[in-house]
Amino acid sequence: MNIARKNIYNVTAYAAGKPIEEAKRQFGLKKVIKLASNENPLGPSPKALRAVKRALPAINRYPDSHCFYLKKKLSKFLNLEQSNLILGNGSDELIDIIIKTFVEEDESIITADITFLEYKIVSQVLGRRVITVPLRYFKYDLASIKKKIDKNCKAVFISNPNNPTGTYVSEDEVEDFINDLPEGLLLVLDEAYDTFIDVDDFPRSIKFVKRHNNVIILKTFSKAYGLAGLRVGYAIAAPPTVSLMERARQPFNVNLLAQAAAIAALDDDSFLAKTRKVVLEGKAYLYDSLRKLGIAYVPSVTNFILLDVGRDGTEVFKGMLKFGLIVREMKQYGLKNFIRVTIGTGKENERFIRVLKKVLEGHS
Ligand SMILES: Cc1ncc(COP(=O)(O)O)c(C=O)c1O
User: Fold this and answer.
1) How far is CA 329 from each of CA 122, 163, 164, 308, rounded to the nearest angstrom?
2) Which of 250, 245, 246, 251 is nearest to 102 (CA)?
3) pLDDT tens figures, 146-203
4) Can you tell me which atom of ligand 1 is nearest the CA of 161?
5) Is 41 in the pocket of ligand 1 (CB under 6 A)?
6) Please, are residues 238 and 264 in contact by the beta-carbon 8 Å criterion?
7) pLDDT of 325-344, one tens digit each?
8) Which residue's C-alpha comes closest to atom 13 of ligand 1?
């Protein structure tokens, strides 16, 4: 007899990047470098770290359910109203809240075939149908997505930039897409990696929220601010849209330390600048080294790069692991001959290139 709801049997659980401690245990290694989850290689924002230490004695208390001070700070930072904001236990939770709030059981979401897995996983757990549209040259194909939208479709999820390909859709493309979208269809622009953008035509998407009730932007403190372990992200939307999402939110979803850290991180301009510099310099180094090794990659506007290793990516991932280097295999995304690497510090990137070369040359 099946004990779970029917949908659960169709779900493949999210396979997270391998934790450093697990790799150490498994291979008896002292030093392991993790370039698998697009985290900040410089650690957390120092201002956030100090704020966490100051907040620690208060963890006997529940956190502020409404994230009052964080919302206040964010609204100033973004030049928006507090009523435009809802905080989440990572932007992961906001994806869940969006689907629970807006997508009926007989409705579907639409997204790309190779994109952030959570859109699909959350929908499947909740029993909502997922329509996927192939990427075009590793990029979201908005024209084809538009053609596939049917009357049961309730939300479009666009990872912009796209994880795992690192490509983006431009402001003009989003503008064209938004025009004449069916009424009642939500457009979710997931901008987890927006801080790393190094192009001019990336959407200034807040203007879309100001014009349309049906646009939701997702942001996170996990990447550029280095707070992945604390879990805090937010959504920006029109106040009526936010107020509906509030009904599906757990009361104490953002923990006390995460709120304190996020408030402080927003003031840490120098950390953000340093992070961007490390990512941009690291990317230039990796591109150059990969070209020299003859390894094809997808040009990225993010802090990670998708590589075509020309053979089973899982084998390459396993080979690199033995040398204490964790990258991401891409099997779950349907990209058999690829791996994804997060841009690390200068030293980490050099080590990555050395180990990749060894593994591809067949050393083990
Ligand atoms: C595109 C995208 N959206 C959302 C997330 C989730 O981020 P968070 O840590 O805020 O839950 C990630 C994390 O990898 C991501 O790649």
Assistant:
1) 21, 13, 11, 11
2) 245
3) 999 999 999 999 999 999 999 999 999 999 999 889 989 999 999 999 999 999 999 9
4) 1
5) no
6) no
7) 999 999 999 999 999 999 99
8) 192
Structure tokens at 324: 């204490």
Q: Is the CB of residue 91 below 6 angstroms from any atom belonging to ligand 1?
A: yes
Q: Is the pTM of this model over 0.70?
A: yes
Ligand 1 contact via 92 beta carbon (within 6 Å): yes
φ, ψ (nearest 5 deg) of residue 120: -75, -45
> Residue 253 has which token pair?
């979803």
Contact between 132 and 111 under an 8 Å Cβ cutoff? The reply is: yes
**Per DSSP, what are the bridge partners of residue 308?**
296, 338
Report whether residue 222 contacts ligand 1, using a CB cutoff of 6 Å.
Answer: yes
> pLDDT, tens digit, for every residue of 289-322?
999 999 999 999 999 999 999 999 999 999 999 9
Token pair, residue 133, equals 């549209």
| Residue 333 near ligand 1, beta carbon < 6 Å | no
Q: What are the chain's domains?
A: 6-44+269-360 (3.90.1150.10), 46-265 (3.40.640.10)
| Residue of 86, 116, 159 with the most ligand 1 atoms within 8 Å of its CB, for mutation | 116
